[in-house]
Amino acid sequence: MSKRVSEPTAPPVERAFLVGVEVKSQPGLLSLEDSLSELSLLCETAGLEVVGETKQRLDTPHPNTYIGSGKVEEIRLLVEETLSNVVVFDTELSPTHQRELEEKLGDNVRVLDRTAIILDIFAQHANTREGKLQVELAQYEYRLPRLTRAWTHLARQAGGGGGRTGSVGGVGLRGPGETQLEVDRRDIHRRISALKKELENVRAHRSRHRDQRRRTQIPVIALVGYTNAGKSTLLNHLSKADVYVADKLFATLDPTTRRVELPGGHWVLMTDTVGFIQKLPTQLIAAFRATLEEITEADLLIHLVDATHPNAHVQWDSVKETLSAIDAGNIPMITALNKIDQLSDPEEAQRLTTEYEDAIAISALKGAGIQNLLSSIERELFETFVPVTVYLPFQEGQLISLFHEQGQIATTENTRTGVTIQGNLPGRLIARYQPFFERPKSTEE
């Protein structure tokens, strides 16, 4: 009689209960309901099954549990009723909040916050070595202050009575009375330092590549936008590339650059960058500095907006806010209202273009409006001139020569250390001269 071999079963999907909190003194870009809906999508992307949710509005967060004690008890009962094993808050919790909440919600319930979910999604989607380094750094910096609650063995003493030999992460003999927590924290500090050094090498490598691109005089365009706005689809359409595309949040983390030809015969380099989201964790912004420099060093930004999304305006504001935070707010930008093929009213697309500055309606999937977009890119890069006054030290000889070659000079004034130039520059060069602006100027054709 043959013996039946049982096939391995997949691990059970964790059941998540969501908690949305609106603090009166800390208003978000999205409404409480819409932000909670976005958190639900994030959890599903991370592989969690959302089984319930609750909301609370507060004047100020509770110092221990963030939400009130009555709400904590309500959530505990709802978690039992829905058989949830994860509670996810739509905000970033302090280590104290997480620890207190887990104690009150039960031993078998993990408490996570929005930042932890986003970091987990990034970890799943990072494919290149650079992406993995950046995510690992962000995760360690997030976990470091939470070691007291995240590691089960940390209360163990290693030492006493003349010391004890042990090993964690390569650490050997420990001092008397030293806790496992102190050893683990020191190991993580070492790893963070090593990761930062590796990423500085990545940053230097990217900088050398950008210098080479500048010498070719080929303009660089960065595609930016809220996550899942269609940046990779647009890059594929324009360059006939095969960048990974999926209808989910943060499908693309690693920047991809392709050559694109404009209608007038000019060539540009177009880079697909990581998508933004409201409440983007500060750890990620810091860790992805090398990648985000692909945006800050671009000659032009194409800001993709999902025209079908009910919160398109809020997403547009969120991206603009993030661009300002990384010092990319003054780079020339064209807004591309994407996915117009999914609008029920064809005339809605043209109406929407009046609600955004420098907007063009397109469908990256179907190709509608793409020629208009390419013509606008060409006009912005090669036909639009911006009046500026810059002071260039003599050691910036390359920029001085470039202004003479590509710009229109009205006046020059030499000093002992440099030269002040007043005139017009092509829009594609503005970002390069921005650190040397004498004063802000308005953009005119």
Topology:
Blueprint (H helix, E strand, L loop, with lengths): L14 E9 L8 H14 L3 E10 L10 H14 L3 E4 L5 H11 L4 E4 H12 L3 H15 L3 H4 L6 E2 L5 E5 L2 E4 L3 E2 H36 L4 E6 L5 H9 L16 E6 L5 E6 L9 H6 L1 H8 L3 E7 L5 H14 L7 E6 L7 H8 L5 E3 L8 H14 L1 E9 L3 H10 L1 E7 L3 E9 L3 H4 L12
Parallel strand pairs: 1-2, 1-3, 3-4, 9-11, 9-12, 12-13, 13-14
Antiparallel strand pairs: 5-8, 6-7, 10-11, 15-17, 16-17
Helix pairs in contact: 1-4, 4-5, 5-7, 7-10
Tell me the strand order in the biggest sheet.
10-11-9-12-13-14
Look at the structure and give the CATH class of the largest domain: Alpha Beta
What is the percentage of strand-forming residues?
15-25%
Count of the separate structural domains: 4
User: Uncertain spans, ≥5 residues at pLDDT below 50?
Assistant: 149-177, 440-445
Q: Which term fits the overall shape?
A: globular
What is the typical, i.e. mean, pLDDT? Answer: 82
Helix content estimate: 40-55%
The number of distinct β-strands equals 17
CATH homologous superfamily placement of the largest domain: P-loop containing nucleotide triphosphate hydrolases
